[in-house]
Design brief:
The protein is built from 13 helices and 14 strands. The protein is globular.
Length: 411
Amino acid sequence: MHCLFNRRSTLSRLIAGGLVWGAVTSMLPAHAQAPTSGPLKIGVIGPFTGPSSDFGLLMLQGVQLATEQINAGGGYLGRPLALVIKDDQGNPDVGLKGSQELITEGVAATIGFCNTGVAAKSIELFQNAKMPLLIPCATGTPLTAKYPGPSSYIFRTSARDAIQAPFVVEHILGKGWDKVAIFADTTGYGEAGLKDVEAALAAKNLKAVHIARFGLGVKDLKDELSAAKAAGANVIFSYTVGTENAVIALGRKELKWAVPQVGAWTLSFPFFINGGKDAAEGALMAQTFIAEPSNERRASFLAAYKRKFNQAMAVPMAAAQAYDTTYLLMYALFDVRGGQSALTGPALKAALEDIKRVYYGVVGTYDKPFSADDKDAISANMLVMGKVSNGLITFANPADAKRNLFVQRKK
């Protein structure tokens, strides 16, 4: 009776307090049993230094904010959550080492990865160890497609590129921008994104008029931009993570080529907005969350973040998705049959696939976000089009701003 009381009182305090929940995942040795006393270790891995740290740190902060709230509400059956943090530096080899360390250190769950290429090198470890991995940021479509749904331990709470690319393509075609130049880097993210954009265009019986590929760290793309211009492109669809997006914008400005730049969520990152300055203005991108207090849930989240970190939210999507992911993990933990004495990777996987309660999050309202066959929590109807305006991200469409008053559910 004591455990049941704790379970109910923790949930009731969290729900009554209007708290919102984020992402974490199971990292125990295969079929191992979690300790039933002391802090419950949760792994967090991402790029907290290096060229992807602008959104990696926001992912970490989202997890930290949710964890602080969860612990204030009683933690997991009276056990506080303790974060075990690994910096993958945006490097696949460093990420692999950090993932191995999390498994060895016996964390009960892991939230992780911002870079598709880094995640791709590590997900086999989690799969083979039968430990759920929840990905709150990396969007490469192959990450949740590598393993058959019923056997997969890889979950995701970010919008995969297979829904972002068609969403953006639909938008630009509606504006008459049908001659698309694709600029994609040569990372796993750029490679997968390129395929998704080409597939989205093909579904409309279109092909890109020019495709440019480049490595990370490139400083000048004016030759490729000139070639795209000569090919008659009237829009640039960029698929890269960091400063390279700004290189595209600045090169376009230098060429005095006034065509729009569009892309996935990475165009909302500081490396693009601050690096591109006025050349970044007007860029359009897919978003799951825009940092405007459009309803009580989002206003509460934004205020809580401000109180804890006392700074502007540089990449709101990363923080919000990680926050929701952490809470979804907690809902699943409470649904493990047999409680903490039965807390294993397979048990947590099963609980994540059948979360009993609706979680009213800041990105979405999560009613059965995962299933045995579907490990992606975000659907296309949950996306909105963002726009760079005066150095900030706002709604590109008035209809999206109005629709954003109501938190969307997965379809």
